[in-house]
Amino acid sequence: MSKELKPQSIVIAGGGSTFTPEIILMLLDNAETLPIRTLKLYDNDPERQKIVADAVEIILSERAPHIEYLATTDPKEAFTDIDFVMAHIRVGKYAMREQDEKIPLKYGVIGQETCGPGGIAYGMRSIGGVLELVDYMERYSPDAWMLNYSNPAAIVAEATRKLRPNSKILNICDMPIGLESRMAKVLGLESRKEMDVRYYGLNHFGWWTDIHDKNGNDLMPKLKEYISKHGFSLEGLGKDPKENDPSWMDTYRKAKDVYQLDPYTLPNTYLKYYFFPDEAAEHSDPNFTRANEVMAGREKRVFGECMRITEMKTAKDTKLEVGAHASYIVDLARAIAYNSHERMLLIVPNNGSIVNFDPTAMVEIPCIVGSNGPEPLTQGEIPRFQKGLMEQQVAVEKLVVEAWVEKSYQKLWQAFATSKIIPNAKVAKDILDNMIEANKDFWPELH
Ligand code: NAD
Ligand code: G6P
Ligand code: MN
To answer: Is the ipTM of this complex over 0.90?
Structure first.
């Protein structure tokens, strides 16, 4: 690319996220194709953000002193004069993720960050937090775009579609990208970008229907053969490092069973929670769920390293790595800033792309992204199997947003009762009542 690229001003909302340092390193790594003039961190928890922000200040002073830097909890300072908001907030933080995972388990139901009752509870917390960010952005930088990957992305996307229909917000997920990187390894390709994919579904609820290389060769047969044996685990190639968290390895392996349900497509790993919820619950330790694993693992590692950098006053020898998997965020920002027409999976209003599906549903499909935003690619008609599953799940997501808007206990109970993961309306009510109590500082009061 030419040297005349206009440098961008970016605020990372959720500055205290465990993902912030590696995303900053990733942005620096991509500075040639996405030059940056200003970088700001914004969070509503000053103590948590400071741990990350102090280390980022040292990293930037050593590696990119020309970038203007600010970490703040003041929305006006944070959102003034910016081109992009990169949003990854977690309303309620890990303490509430732990509740989302542990409350359902008391009733024998799997508790998960974005799926089933845990995802619904998290959605009820996230909607207000993300809308607040959109409103700050529009007040202080009306031309900016928000690239949102705060979860649960499906519910957040439905909320922004319904409540901020004209806002410049794009919702994106890294799971298909992560799985495509695994596919590329299986195929012996350098990069996932050597593949052209067709994919459709809802966020954390979708299927690949077609994968070709740039010469037009069909890559599906080889992938199907591998995935039918190993799922998305790379153990079949001897390439999955032992230090991968065991819960993720289980998920990668389990895709082999999910695949059997529809051997014409390749499934997103999250479908395991919908097809095998009992097994997922049985395999959970009710005293040590994924939130505990993350707090003991990623949070400890990243924050420990940030504190070490701050103490040593240098990041020259840091173990923090470039979050290469997060480079899709740069791809997306670049597509908007410089009209690159990159093809990417985004969560967008269906609007006819899946011909036989609700036009108002937020679906995850390939789009061509340019300065005017995404142009979704039509996916045609989908089979009854996927259509039925998606209709049930989209009803859950829409009911949650309606429940939040109308402060409706009835609709939220309906959302719980409609979720494929929850066995019956009685269990739905028990979990809901427990979650109302746990979330009283975050949810609207329901009546
Ligand atoms: P984290 O708890 O470490 O960080 C989240 C930060 O958000 C915290 O510092 C918290 O104080 C802050 N925050 C909470 N509410 C806020 C508000 N209203 N305004 C401003 N800041 C607020 O969480 P994490 O594990 O690093 O994940 C961050 C987010 O990214 C989560 O929502 C996670 O689900 C999401 N995520 C999404 C994808 C994807 O595929 N879409 C991938 C990875 C992570
Ligand atoms: C994937 C998903 C995200 C999710 C994350 C959970 O990246 O796409 O939406 O937040 O996994 O990872 P964690 O390590 O926090 O359990
Ligand atoms: Mn995701």
So the answer is: yes
